Amino acid sequence: MSAFEELMAFQRQTEALAQVAGRLGWDQETVMPEGSAAQRAEEIGALEGVLHARRTDPRIAGWLEAAQAPDAVGEAQLRLIRRSYARTMKVPAKLAEEIAATMSLAQGVWAECRSREDVAGFLPTLRKVVDLKRAEGAALAAGGDPYDALVDDYEPGMTGAAIAAMFDAMRPRLVALREKVLGAEAPKGVVGVFPQEAQLALSRELATVFGYDWSRGRIDLAVHPFSSGSGHDVRITTRVNETDPFNCFYSTIHEVGHAAYEQGIDAGYALTPIGQGVSMGVHESQSRSYENQLGRSSAFTGWLFGRMREVFGDFGIADADAFYKAVNRVHPGYIRTEADEVHYNLHVMMRFDLERALIRGELQVEDLEAAWNDRFRADFGVAVDRPSNGMLQDVHWSCGLFGYFPTYTLGNVYAGCLVKALRADIPGLDGQMERGDVSAATGWLRERVQRHGGLYEPRDVVRRACGFEPSEGPLLDYLEAKFGAIYGV
Amino acid sequence: MSAFEELMAFQRQTEALAQVAGRLGWDQETVMPEGSAAQRAEEIGALEGVLHARRTDPRIAGWLEAAQAPDAVGEAQLRLIRRSYARTMKVPAKLAEEIAATMSLAQGVWAECRSREDVAGFLPTLRKVVDLKRAEGAALAAGGDPYDALVDDYEPGMTGAAIAAMFDAMRPRLVALREKVLGAEAPKGVVGVFPQEAQLALSRELATVFGYDWSRGRIDLAVHPFSSGSGHDVRITTRVNETDPFNCFYSTIHEVGHAAYEQGIDAGYALTPIGQGVSMGVHESQSRSYENQLGRSSAFTGWLFGRMREVFGDFGIADADAFYKAVNRVHPGYIRTEADEVHYNLHVMMRFDLERALIRGELQVEDLEAAWNDRFRADFGVAVDRPSNGMLQDVHWSCGLFGYFPTYTLGNVYAGCLVKALRADIPGLDGQMERGDVSAATGWLRERVQRHGGLYEPRDVVRRACGFEPSEGPLLDYLEAKFGAIYGV
Fold first, then answer.
1. What family classification does the UniProt entry report for this protein (chains A, B) (predicted)?
2. From CA B19, how far away is CA A40, in angstroms rounded?
3. If DSSP states are collapsed to H, E and C, what string results for B71-111?
4. Which site among A39, A48, A234 would you substitute to test the B interface, given the most B Cβ atoms closer than 10 Å to its Cβ?
5. Measured in whole angstroms, how far is the alpha carbon of residue B35 from the centre of its chain?
6. Which end of chain A is more exposed for a tag (fewer CB within 10 A), N or C?
7. A406-425 and A439-448 helices cross at what angle (nearest 10)?
């Protein structure tokens, strides 16, 4: 075997073991008995130890030096292996161990403190997490910006400065839209009880409509919906609130977007470095396209209204137009995960500025709550009423996920570009979606984005798909047009 | 850390990874999407590669040489690690790899050939499996009997000769009992349709009655019921036939017996070599005690009759006595897994003789079908009508599980001894079981057998529990008394 082949064979086993780790995560969130948590932590720890040993295996350096890629796909493989290996080797083993040990405990502390509204109790843990992530960022940046180095884990090639510039361009238009919309009359919401089994049945139908491949997946209930796995085993979860069916339906469509990306990657890339979604931002561009630009469109909600009437009877909404408005109701609120399309990115931008300042040492953990609350009042116009509605609401920072938040909005931005481009390519799309057929749109995304996996850099795959340079413009145009029309503003 | 501590820490991670492999097996049989099989095979292969590398890690030899056990528990740990390491190192790596590669394919060939009733198609694969297992047995036996070496994998300390002597002593009494019973009038069976959901609900109730710890387990459906996992995550499966509720109920009780053993082991032994059932025979002694000696007793079926009447109404059985007879109906048949208590061991004995002759080279694969059919006619009095009812019925040989079959009957023998001893210790047991309370019996088994895990050798743990030398006598006495009374013979 050549050095390239040896490296790829070694890497393939690592990828297979990483899939096993993902499967344990799925198990833990869906079917694991509650008394198994401590043993499971040891099982995952042992597997992570195996993965870390493989990722730092000294043979990789030799293989990388000698390997000759046979083609462009092989070059992409080597590029990703090289990047991952360089990243892993930059972080001292002792720091990596301390990060792993701290994060596995910090999430439990966060959950406990959030339930008690106890910011002071969480601060020592958060301080430790931030210190460790600052150290990791510094080790990775090697003199550069530590926050940029952390962002690079989730969105290769993106920097804090580029994100800040984009967000600064977005904020005024979003704030202006928000103010106009909240000044107008709010549409009616749905009323009634929507039984769990019927919601799940329609949710499965929606997954099928959006192209979910059931032969390589399944859907289960979980507290927080997620998609898990790559290649031939990509599972999703959803949740049910019997008075709010949109929670279930749009969680499902969102996760189908993530899963369709993984399922749509060229089968020849399975269990290789390029055999998974290329970045968090591009991943989110798929889930958000499916959920919002397609799933919450006037055309598709027209079909969904008919199906919901057939399944649930009368639920207080007179016609498809009122239903479209109900699906897209804009409502102020404290919680990011419950936010509508107008508010969502404002939540993300705020977290981005705060976490970037934390990592760069411009904001201290002790001052985070005041900074959060000041900023929330400035952007959202109301005061935070309690920590679980404020700085304790998200799990991310307790898990050390600094640099992750901005990829949510980046995903929305990319979704704006992609759907603008696919709409130009598919003139009859709305007519198809009115009949519950989104296959032209999902097929376009599969062909232009999903099948490539990690073959191109994140921004490149979006640019190639769209045929133009990605920017925030299409998303903002879409939001202003859509909500301007719904609210008559 | 001392050498002992280093070895135990290393071993603990290996045990944790072995639990992960078990969890993948559970996933595959219960929830895995059908299209995921090929990828899963790679995932399991990668994990097995990691486990094999750990089990042959050269540091183990050094640790074993230097390790000083601090106490008797530590000595038992070292004994099991030493045995496992010696066993693993005796098999050449190339042979181990060939065995793994062959078995992963052979099971599929067997399933395909069984569905086509195609013995000739299966023979080349079976020949390869037998050749490999002969070679493995020879490598392990180092001049001794290769079949004994294979038996030792499942039942340490047991030999083919000892099993043959026991089985020879059992056969005449079982054949005589079988002939008497089949000459008498057969009791009535249940009639009706028993809906799946109701069966599963009562099945969960039975699991609870037999002491299954739900906080560390769950029950799901699978084609072939099994118990999976050790320590704090021990899951079981069952199956449902809507016209035969006993299939579901007694499969569940059987698997609860296996699971209760794993759950009942001293919590301090978890993720160590002694933290799991000590042998297949002792494991089966628990499942068979739960299922047969307790679950099919006159006392317990009295309670079950009442519950089934409450749940299902009239199902053609007039009273508890008729129900007891229906549960214990003796029926001739080709299939081992459907056999009653009278026939079951005759099936096992036949397989034992055939597989021992195959491994010792006294029987060739080409002659197996004729040997099977001759022997079946001699022991069961009827001719095999087709291969899927004959030599193609069991998966074991295609998986290379030679030496496994006799542990089923050994488990029955041990169950006979254990339940004789526990009945002597618990005089009011039948009165309790008539009220659906088997806790005194399961508590006795947990205290005397289950909690020890691998602390003692298999036969020793049974001897210590019973207070007498285990033999086939109690099982035969029990069967003759029980079926003699039911059939009036």
1. Belongs to the peptidase M32 family.
2. 9
3. CHHHHHHHHHHHHHHHHHHHCCHHHHHHHHHHHHHHHHHHH
4. A39
5. 29
6. N
7. 110
Decide if B232 and A38 are in contact by the 8 Å CB cutoff: yes
Q: Would you state the pLDDT for residue A104? A: 78
CA distances from B99 to B129, B135, B441 (A): 8, 10, 41
SS3 string, B195-217, reads CHHHHHHHHHHHHHHCCCCHHHC
> What residues of A are in contact with residue B24 (Cβ under 8 Å)?
20, 23
Q: Kindly determine whether residue B47 and residue A20, on different chains, have CB atoms separated by under 8 Å.
A: yes
**Residue A179 to chain B, least CA–CA distance (Å):** 47
Mean pLDDT for all residues in chain A: 97
Asked whether A433 and A294 are in contact (CB, 8 A), the reply is yes
Q: How many whole angstroms separate alpha carbon A113 and alpha carbon B386? A: 66
Residue showing tokens 């002939």: B179
Residues of A in contact with B49 (CB under 8 A): 13
SS3 A236: strand
pLDDT score at A44: 93
What residues of B are in contact with residue A20 (Cβ under 8 Å)?
A: 20, 24, 43, 46-47
- Is B35 touching A (CB cutoff 8 A)? yes
Q: Quote the tokens at residue B416.
A: 């006979």
Strands of A227-228's sheet, edge to edge?
A219-221, A235-238, A227-228
- Does the CA dihedral A386-A391-A394-A399 come out positive or negative? negative
Cα separation, A133 vs A137, in Å, equals 6
For B419-464, what is each residue's pLDDT tens digit? 999 999 999 999 999 999 999 999 999 999 999 999 999 999 999 9
CB contact under 8 A, A16 and B45: yes
A73-94 mean pLDDT: 96
Residue A222 CB contacts under 8 Å (≥ 6 apart), including other chains:
A29, A30, A237, A238, A239
Q: Are A237 and A226 in contact (CB under 8 A)?
A: yes
Distance CA B148, CA B163 (A): 10
Averaged pLDDT score across all residues of chain B: 97
Distance from CA of B17 to the nearest CA of A (A): 6
C-beta atoms surrounding A161 within 10 Å: 12
Catalytic positions of B are 255
The domain made up of B156-489 has a fold known as Neurolysin; domain 3 (1.10.1370)
Domain boundaries, chain B: 3-154, 156-489
CA-nearest residue to A216 within chain B is: B35
A85 CA to chain B: closest CA distance, Å?
A: 20
Nearest to B16 among A13, A42, A218 (CB): A42
List the beta bridge partners of residue A235.
Answer: A228
Distance from CA of B39 to the nearest CA of A (A): 6
Rounded Cα distance between A99 and A107, Å, is 12
Query: Does B48 lie at the interface with A, CB-CB under 8 angstroms?
Result: no
Classified by CATH at the fold level, domain A91-489 comes out as: Neurolysin; domain 3 (1.10.1370)
Q: What is the mean pLDDT of residues A423-440?
A: 98
The count of residues in chain A is 489
pLDDT per position as a tens digit, A362-407: 999 999 999 999 999 999 989 999 999 999 999 999 999 999 999 9
Determine whether the interchain pair B19/A39 forms a contact, defined as Cβ–Cβ distance below 8 Å. yes
| Confidence tier at A103 by pLDDT (50, 70, 90) | confident
Residue B336: DSSP 8-state: G
Query: How does pLDDT run across B93-112, given as a tens digit for each residue?
Result: 999 999 988 987 899 899 99
Q: Please report the beta strands in A76-142, taking only residues with DSSP state E, as ranges in sequence order.
A: none
- State whether B20 and A19 contact (CB < 8 Å): no
